[in-house]
Amino acid sequence: MVLKELCLLRGVSGDEDRVRDFVRAHAEKYADSVAIDRMGNLLAFKKGTDSHKHVMLAAHMDEVGFIVVGINDNGLLSYEPVGAIDPRVVVSKPVRVGDSEVPGVIGAKAIHLQTKAEFEKMLRHDDLYIDIGAPSKAEAEKLVQPGDYVTFQSDWREFGDGLVKSKALDDRVGVMALMSVLENEYPCDITCAFTVQEEVGLRGAICAGYNVEADEAIALEGTTANDLGDVPDPLKVCRVGRGVAISFMDRTSIANRPLFQRLRDTAIAAGIPWQLKQFIAGGNDAGAIQLSRGGVPTAVLSVPCRNIHSGSSVASFSDIEAQFSLVDRYLRGERE
Amino acid sequence: MKDTLIKLLNAYGAAGREGNVTDVIAGMVAPHCDEMRTDALGNLICIKKGAGRKVMVCAHMDHIGFVVTDADEKGFLRVGSVGGIRKSASINRRVVFENGVNGVLSNELDDFSADDRKMENLFIDIGAASRDEALSSVSIGDVAVYAPGAFELLNGVVAAPAMDDRAGCAVAVEALKALTDSANEVAFVFSAQEEVGLRGAKAAAYSIDPEIGISIDVTPSGDTPKGPKTAVKLGAGPCVKVRDSSLVCSPKVVRGLEAAAGRLGIAVQREVLTMGGNDAAAMQLTRAGVLAGTISIACRYVHSASEAVSLPDCERAAALLVEFLRNPLGE
Amino acid sequence: MDIGKFLEEVAHVPGVPGYEAAVGARIAEWFRPVADEIFTDALENLYARVGEKGPKVLVCAHQDEIGLVVTKIEDDGCLRVFKNGGVDPRILPGMEVAVQARSGPIYGVVGAKPPHLLTEKEREKAISIQDVYIDTGYPVEQVRNLVRVGDMAVLLANPQTLAGNCMAGKTMDNRASVASMLVAAEWMKSRGTPAEAYFVATSQEEIGSKGAAAAAYRLQPDLAIVVDVTHAECPGAGKWEVFPLDRVAVVHGPNIHPKLEKLALDVAQENGVATSREITSGVTWTDAENTQISRGGVPTLLLSIPVRYMHTTVELLKLDVVRETGRLIALLIERLACEWEGFRWY
């Protein structure tokens, strides 16, 4: 299954080659032209049957992860997060280091050994290490080196009522939606922009927006769903299983009103499950594309993900399906 | 000036929802410019053609507000901030939506956070008794602003919500009308979404591609009891900004403004703001770089519902702008 | 070129963010003997072109220095200030400064409330920018005639030559990197390297790398080589955030194009340029941040000269490293020029 393969690929911000190669193989079969720009974005263009409008779709290929900054004398690796990762979700987790995917773990001092004060203190990344089992610096250097990118190690696991747990649902779900779009024919011209480095500042999208001159742009994302546990309703953001989340506003863009309304109306008319993203948080590629050159109308469609930015992000297949259905229906209706 | 200002203050215009203000301004300036258009971000761009230098003037139409994110089962609306809302300036104030619905912005008393930017225990009461009733009057995603209502104090001081930056828009409108004999090409941009990150100005500056950019915005004055630590005062004339936290104004523009003021015999105040930002920063960083600066209007109680400016300062700011546009770099 | 002489000279020319015209003009004089073309732009970036055919390379190092701006003139004549660029207020008490007034520079000394007048609590707190003031020694009426709100001020310091071919002074961040560009330019010129290189002393890096954004946009280069300073090994610093004083650091991370990085490391190794590796996890807070995302993207390399005590007036580095950095830049451009035919980034 394509999404599973995508999620299991290594692709931390700055190290997206494998994901890009995977996408490229697919894009070259279906797109009219495929280019890689100088930032590393993959831009796949497909001419429409009607060509009155050029729509840009964006999904980012990168995932959050870590980078090895140094090897200590005791063989433990010091690291920094790439993208925003809450230190609390990395403790006691397995990882893979470098191109050879050397297995490692981010351990923590055993609970038996902690003082009360230590137990209550919040851990920071500076306090943590990746342990690959090497007894010394010299031994570690045979396997890894500073600068190696590190991913969460997380098996793909389908569970519960139509849910899946994996790393990188943010934003391989969007990448897959774009790959599916490329397989179809639509009235309007489409550029599918598979961007890099979204997680470290929307950087790929800044360049992709400059390179692609579109009439409007829609970002297909994974977004945080805070819907379980003791969370007051207004802070849930969106809910897993209730459909694709349409944003009216987040921290990097205010959705273009007419485009937002067209997407919402399409969902309603086609009976596609949808919800609003109900918290003004987060940023995504639309924020960058909206301000490219003289400005572009943008909107965002997201799949709700629990535990986003961790190795155990969770989403619902029905929401993933809804995201694709909505963008597909919308594009089919774009005759203007 | 007063008339223009009041009309602008009364129009609804939250960041991302500037349509009404755009219409009011367009009505005022259409007979006086050669070209007028809006763009993808909602900017209103009005061009007065000329063969000389290309100058962009920028004043932002948008104003901070509260966006509805949810309604609870008793009909109270939950909100997020749009732009730099200060809780302490907002509680128990009258707010109003684009469709005219009124509300009271208030707060939960338990667990009240002292963080001025945290919105989670605020709500808007529109008098609805249930979630359904609330959402049949307003929608999730609608934005409420401090209800308009300008009032006059002594010495030509006027107070109202949205002086930031309808005062700047009024100055730009009056200057646009008064600019009759400039050799330069001037694009007056009434920008959108400044309060959420100078977004409109960034896009507009790219399209216009000016050589010189000048923004008109308000700046906090330091002349109230134990007020902000700045030398700027109400009534002491328009300010020539030297820097704020978003840009260091081009020395050539600072000198150009001071020279223009000198030619007119207008007193100006040199302004250093240790925080804050404005559209000039977006213009300065456009394409291969733009000579950018700001004319500021001293304002008390910025980002509150009673922002207060001096009308004589606004009038002189408009005169300064016109003279600058005729001869920007003092040649 | 005499790197020490260059650094001593430019350290004395004022150039705080937004106000770089004077230092740009002085740097221009140093480039004049080797440049084919010299020009500036709206943001006071200083461009020196060497060569006219082949890959178009942007090499940049920022010319601006951290400084102060006058915010208010008090009734007793002392000047309140704010930072222009990342000044650590703790270095200010006792600092000698020069206010850049209309009539010329005015000497002043930075003061703060003396310790015996501080409360116990105040003495425990680090000094903040609101606590300091500049004393020009003039009575208030004269101060008001000479100085205005908004006047800039520079920190004053004489560079010191130390053992081990070290120099300590102000503006090593980042005029030492400008020196390395000059070394590279001289090398390129003498060898007639087939590349079109623009050596740009950029403006306003300390307040957001604005000059670099404008320069990259204007030039539309094929690639960018950015030179800045990084932290050299010293007591009290985190283990992985400091680097050996005696070699240039080649930076690795998402802000750097891996192919350029590899080329730089290969060229260094083949030519005996000692390097270390600096690992970064995102944007680098240097001009590289803005060159990489200019227009449709510009593959970027970042080289760092290690400096101790950054953002003080005793920034310390090794002059050899400045020279070696310049040599590496020139050799890298030469390699790229040779391989440019059919070169691909991905």
Question: How would you characterize the overall build of this protein?
Answer:
The complex is a heterotrimer of chains A (336), B (331) and C (346). Chain A contains nine helices and 17 strands. With 336 residues, chain A is an alpha+beta fold. In chain A, the strands form three sheets. An eight-stranded mixed β-sheet of chain A has the order 1-2-12-3-13-16-14-15, sandwiched between helices. Chain A is globular, with a radius of gyration of 21 Å. With 331 residues, chain B is an alpha+beta fold. Chain B is built from eight helices and 17 strands. In chain B, the strands form three sheets. Chain B has an eight-stranded mixed β-sheet with strand order 1-2-12-3-13-16-14-15, with helices on both faces. A six-stranded antiparallel barrel of chain B has the order 4-5-8-7-6-9. Chain B starts with a helix and ends in a 5-residue tail after the last helix. Chain C is α+β, with helices and mostly antiparallel strands. Chain C has two domains: 233 residues, Zn peptidases (Aminopeptidase); 88 residues, Beta Barrel (Elongation Factor Tu (Ef-tu), domain 3), CATH 2.40.30.40. Chains in contact: A-B, A-C, B-C. Chains A and B meet through loops of A and β4, β5 and α5 of B.
Gyration radius over CA of chain A:
21 Å
Helical/strand content category of chain B: alpha+beta
Number of domains of chain B: 2
Main sheet record of chain A: 8 strands, mixed
Task: Calculate the terminal CA-CA distance of chain B, rounded to whole Å.
Answer: 29 Å
Which structural class do you get from the secondary structure elements of chain A? alpha+beta
Helix coverage percent of chain B: 25-40%
Write down the CATH class of the largest domain in chain B.
Alpha Beta
Greatest interface (CB-CB under 8 A), with counts per chain: A-C, 32 and 22 residues
Count of runs of 4 or more consecutive helical residues of chain B: 8
CATH structural fold name of the largest domain in chain A: Aminopeptidase
